[in-house]
What does this fold into?
Amino acid sequence: MTHLLFAIVALMPALLMLAGMVFSLLPVLSVRRLWHVFMGLSGIAVICAVITACAGPQFPEFHPWLGATPIGSALALLVQLLCSVIAAFSARYLDGEPRQRRFIGALAGVLSAVHLLLMADHWLVLIAAWALVGVVLQQLLCFYRDRPFARLAAHKKQIADRFADVLLINAAALAWTEVGSGSLSDLWTHIGHQGMSVILQLSAVCLVLAVILRTALLPVHGWLIQVMEAPTPVSALLHAGVVNLGGFVLIRFAPLLEHAMPARTLLVVFGLGTAVLAGLVMLTRISIKVRLAWSTTAQMGFLVLECGLGLYTLAALHLIGHSLYKAQAFLSASTVVRQTRLHAMHGTVAPIPFSLLLAPMVAIPTVLLIQSVLSDAAWPWWWSAILGLAWAPLLWLPGQPGSVRATCLHSGAGLLMVAGLTAAALLAHALPFDIVDAPNHLLGMVALIGMAALYVLLVVLQLRPRALRGWRRWSYAGFYLDESFTRMALQYWPARWIPRALKSGSISAPTAPAEDGRP
It folds into this structure.
């Protein structure tokens, strides 16, 4: 009886959001009343998600189709909380818009499909739920139908999603043929007893390629940048929740990826390349929302890189932290714009040169020291070096003249931030996610070399900005990767509205979308 009760509670968030989508189709409810109904259903879903997340060892299983896992339940709670905040923001943001009813229905449909994906314990459920997320999300991406860039972004995302669906089906067919079952639990058992075969290696490669397409890694990242023309709540939902699902799938398939070296190599190559290139592009952008979009692309690269290196617990914490940060960043974009303008009025001064070279020498030992104090078994040394390089800019000293006391305070604050971030990362190993890391030292050294190269480029950019003038043009254009994908997409998979828009000149530069024009 208790098992059945937990099972019902675990399924309730998905069912409640499905009910919200059904209510949006009822014309008897006014838009204002519909928002109240949706917020009430979302509140009940949050309570059910809390109960499921606190179930501990009694996580319900619906073998072989659905099941609640520790990481899945934690993310379900996170997604539902973010949904409640985004819905409350949307009710004010979209006040007066004529298509709010469709927005509410699409928002509820996306969340219902996400909850289903987070509980998937079967290939068919995983494929169907992820496909439904993309199909319903199209309604939100095209909320403003008269904006060509929004429709172009949705068109390119749809193409990437269909290729990802084909790859997922191939991965499922290969694994199903080898294991004799579509259950993911049966797949983990098979790998534990018989190891990896060539067929399962191919299945892992197909899965990884599908995740690369879904998470908008380079070179199929353009839709994620151009989706800035959608309403700000849609951007928050996409960047804080939907695009992170690829990271969850990789963490969920850790038992398969642990023994799949070709698949992990692909993750490291695409993840590291995306993190470095997107990070460089972000430095050249002025628009706040576009910078946030490129930041998401870079963070997805780091998330995929962590999974490729086998640091799944750190990837889980990264996923949660990124979701919270991006939701807050997009929903408070107007405040960020005002702060940025104030900083611009005061001017920007380059940091002191010697601090650029000294920062890694301080940050890396600090990470290693915190690791040795707080944990006996944490990540390998090369990942400590990577984190030290990533957080070294926090220790750069401002170039404007100041007192010795001000310099010491700035340095102390930077050290505290590095120590705090390291302690938070170590916290991932103490969380009950039931995830086993499998670090690969060869791939780790490749990632360390890539991060060192990125840091050198950042230092050169600070010391000799004119030396990289030619690079800035390429970087501002996103290294022209999206142009190639856009031309191919429109050539082989044209949409009826595209030729008319191009002919009228309403689409002039696919890589430079305008923002939605609202705070």
In short: The two ends are 50 Å apart (CA to CA). Strands lie at 61-62, 66-67.
